[in-house]
Design brief:
This protein has 221 residues and is of the alpha+beta class. The chain contains 6 helices and 6 strands, in the order E-E-H-E-E-E-H-H-H-H-E-H.
Length: 221
């Protein structure tokens, strides 16, 4: 993987105070729509054509206000007036994986999907375990052995400090979170460190997210 010379990551880190991920509180590890543990129809789930059940939202327990990182805000983003109505980056992302029984959604979103995609933009290599990055590398270091939820902001801070090791060096384990990276994994991870990350403004986040997603597609192709 190419060492990053400059990376400015802007992600929706204007975190909602009521963050409780439905995937993280369902510890059955099951996506079986017949399972009595999983509601058949809720506003935060959908069932795919092949019967897989996916959680799509958050269980809110707070007041819905945003917590803004005022020391690390995105500034002066130029939002194009001609953004297309829709565009899809999913075909350029690594294969869909399974977080299993762990509350590792933040590391899957950030380390596995976002960072693997960013590395692919630079290398133009086909995805393999040598360049798909491991959610366990960040998750296991952050979860303090309880295998609960972690945050996007602390995951990005770790990626900035250490980077992320690839799956062939530090495989993902879906049933434990105590294994820690050794010297070889830590050294390999350095090649994927980011230079910075920013929180969205909290004022026009949908347009900001669309702008960055569209720019990612233009950068890649």
């Amino acid at each position: 993987m190419k060492k990053l010379q400059l990376l400015f990551l802007a992600i929706g880190l204007s975190l909602i105070s009521c963050y409780t991920d439905r995937d993280d509180i369902n510890t059955s590890g099951s996506n079986n729509p017949e399972s009595p543990e999983i509601p058949q129809e809720t506003e935060n789930q959908f069932i795919s054509e092949d019967g897989e059940v996916y959680a799509t939202g958050l269980d809110c327990e707070g007041n819905g206000n945003y917590t803004i990182d005022t020391e690390n805000l995105l500034e002066a983003l130029n939002i194009p007036e001609d953004l297309p109505e829709s565009f899809d980056l999913s075909e350029f992302l690594p294969p869909v994986g399974n977080q299993g029984e762990l509350g590792s959604c933040a590391s899957w979103a950030t380390s596995y999907y976002m960072k693997s995609f960013q590395e692919k933009i630079e290398s133009d290599l086909a995805y393999s375990e040598a360049n798909i990055l491991s959610p366990s590398y960040t998750y296991n270091q952050l979860t303090t052995d309880d295998c609960g939820g972690t945050s996007i902001s602390e995951t990005l801070a770790l990626i900035k400090n250490q980077g992320v090791a690839a799956l062939d060096i530090f495989p993902y384990t879906e049933d434990e979170c105590s294994t820690q990276p050794g010297e070889a994994a830590i050294e390999a991870a350095k090649q994927t460190r980011i230079s910075d990350y920013k929180a969205l403004s909290g004022e026009n986040m949908v347009a900001e997210i669309k702008t960055f997603a569209f720019q990612s597609r233009l950068t890649r192709y």
